[in-house]
Every structure is written in structure tokens, then in C-alpha cells.
Amino acid sequence: MDKTFHQPLGGNEMPRFGGIATMMRLPHIQSPEEKRQLDVAFVGVPLDIGTSLRSGTRFGPREIRAQSVMIRPYNMATGAAPFDSLNVADIGDVAINTFNLLDAVRIIEEAYDEIVEFGIKPLTLGGDHTITLPILRALHKKYGKIGLVHVDAHADVNDHMFGEKIAHGTTFRRAQEEGLLDSERVVQIGLRAQGYTAEDFNWSRKQGFRVVQAEECWHKSLEPLMAEVREKVGGGPVYLSFDIDGIDPAWAPGTGTPEIGGLTTIQAMEIIRGCQGLDLIGGDLVEVSACCPGFNADKAPPFQPGASPERRVDPCCSGHNNYKNWRANMALDLFVVLLYVAAMLALGW
After folding, report:
1. Residues 35-50: pLDDT tens digits?
2. Cα radius of gyration rounded to whole Å, the chain
3. Which pLDDT score, from 0 to 100, does residue 252 have?
């Protein structure tokens, strides 16, 4: 039987503002028979009950899909044509328990057990960073210890948060403790801001992780760094976890825990393209919050009485004002996300 290669629905077949809002306007696949034919799948995990500051990542998968209508099938910079060699589709969202975090983690792991059993490499739309732990648990059952490229403003290696062992800030400590990671093949890029102690990032270093603080990335291309990354994490299966707050909030304000001094959009693309040649078994884009300043201003009500024409109130973020540059901020945030997932497909699986 000839292999199927699904193509994104083109703008000349259906206006980009029309049609069903699947990721990149790819087919929505549900049947087990069709899933078994897929190489790669987009999966949404609409979770935000593991967050510690601003919520809204439960809406991340939906908003990412809605904005993905502009993605076309060919990469004009790299020449990659992923849809000509990979069978890719959107398989929908995991039906998490939005009232119980630990049960949601169980549900996610079981859902990814099935995805892995189908032979699919998952590209996950988050969702807060808690979701990476159950995904890694499921992948570990097939691949064993996993190398990791982790882009983030935060190390996410807290021992607990308010006494809870599972939350978006504890993910990679739990993963290391559970033996999911090959600690000598882990790199964390973009860490910055302040800590509770001077040793906060050193826990990662003591495990054998390569920690690349944001200051090490300032004012330079990351191509040399990514050559080092490939050398460190190569030689086995690798997972790419990209927290959108790794990007500076000037470019990506739509996240729950923004930190200044972060990566640029160009550096983000260098990181992703620099993963070419690694044995990538999946990846996620997490902490995209559709309820933060600069993100949902297009859904704001009409101009408020007495307000200047440049200012509108976002009903999803009571008390936050969005200014006339809201559209640029929202577009930059979302297109960083979309470049990420598009580039992952271009890595030649």
C-alpha cells in the first residue's frame, strides 16, 4: 500500500480564516487504523493547574492551532519539505482532569503510552511544563534513558512547590530522580533571573547537566553552542522541551512566568535548527498562555468609555491594558511557537 503524506490545507483551497482549526490545517486523525500510519502527530495537552503564577496555558493548544493557519509546507530558508516525506496529522487533545493534577498526569502518561505504541513521534502543544514529566515517562518505556535539550528561563528542578512534588517547576528533578534522563546528555539553555539560593542552578550541574545561562547567549549567534549541544546529547534518543518563556518577553509576552533578558526569536530558530542530526523522539512547546497581556487583545470588547483609541482592555486579564502594539506582540509570540514546530518537522525524521 502506498504511504500517505498529508498536506496542510492551502490558502487557495480554503481561505486561511476559514475551515477547521487543526494544527497547520492538517487532517484531524482519530481512528486507530489511521494513527498507525502516522510518523509524527501534533497533540494538545490543555493543562494549567500545575502553574504557579499566571494561568491560561489550558487555552494554549487551541490558540496555537488557530494562529497556525499561516504556516505553509515548505521552508524557504532550509529547503525542508517535511510533508513530502513524513505522514503528519493533528490527533487532537488529551482529555485531562482539570480538577486533579495528579490524575491529569496519570491520564497524560496513559495517552502517550498509546501514542508511542502506535509508533508516532509526538509534537506536543502545551499546556504548562508539568506535562513533560508524564510524556517522558511514556517515552522512557520504549527508549530507555533519554537525552534532553531543555530551553527555558527556569531550571524546573525544585524539590517541591508548596509541598507538592508534582508541578511545573519540579518536572526535571522528578525526571532525573526517576531515572528517565541520561544525565550526561542533558542541556538546559536560557536559564536566568533570580533564585531562592545561590545554588539553585548548581543542582543541575551536579547531575551532569550542561547549564547555559542566558547571559552566556547574549549578543551572539548560538550556532557554536549548538555544535557543542549536538556533541553532548548525541548518541541516543533525545527529547526537545521548549518553554516559551525561554524567549524574552519583548518577543513572547504570552506566558505565565516571564523573565527579562531572554533569548531572541533568531536564537530560538538557531537552537531548533541546531538540533538537526539528533535522534529526536519527540518534543513539546509549553507555557503558551492565551490569557496574558499582549495575547488575546483581538478578543477584547469595544473601546471602553473614556479610554483613548490606543488602549483596550483584555477581558481574559482583568486589570491589564493592551496598547496599540498588541498585534505585533501576539504575532511574534505565536510565530515563535509555529516556527518551532515547523522546524522540528524539518529535522528529517
Report:
1. 999 999 999 999 999 8
2. 19
3. 86
pLDDT band at 293 (very low <50, low <70, confident <90, very high): low
User: CA–CA distance from 130 to each of 76, 191, 200, 346 (Å)?
Assistant: 34, 17, 19, 26
pLDDT at 262 over 70: yes
Distance CA 282, CA 297 (A): 32
- The DSSP H or E segment spanning 223 is helix 223-233
Q: What range defines the domain where residue 123 resides? A: 23-345
Helix (H, G, I), strand (E, B) or coil at 115: helix
Residues in the chain: 349
CA distance 160 to 168: 10
CATH number, domain of 27, equals: 3.40.800.10
Query: Whose grid coordinates read 509508533?
Result: 119
> Residue 339 and residue 67: Cα distance in Å, rounded?
12
pLDDT in tens, 207-239: 999 999 999 999 999 999 999 999 999 999 999
Count structural domains, the chain: 1
Q: Is residue 71 part of a domain?
A: yes
- Residue 18: inside a domain, yes or no? no
For 135, half-sphere exposure in the C-beta direction (CA atoms, 13 angstrom radius) is: 30
What's the grid cell of residue 148?
A: 534532553
Percent helix, strand and coil across the chain, each rounded to 5?
35, 20, 45
Please give the distance of CA 278 from its chain centroid, rounded to a whole number: 18
- Residue 16 belongs to some domain of the structure: no
Is residue 10 in a domain? no
Number of C-beta neighbours around residue 1 at 10 A: 4
- Name the band, by pLDDT with cuts 50, 70 and 90, for residue 346: very low
Residue whose C-alpha is closest to residue 135's, from 47, 37, 226, 38 = 47
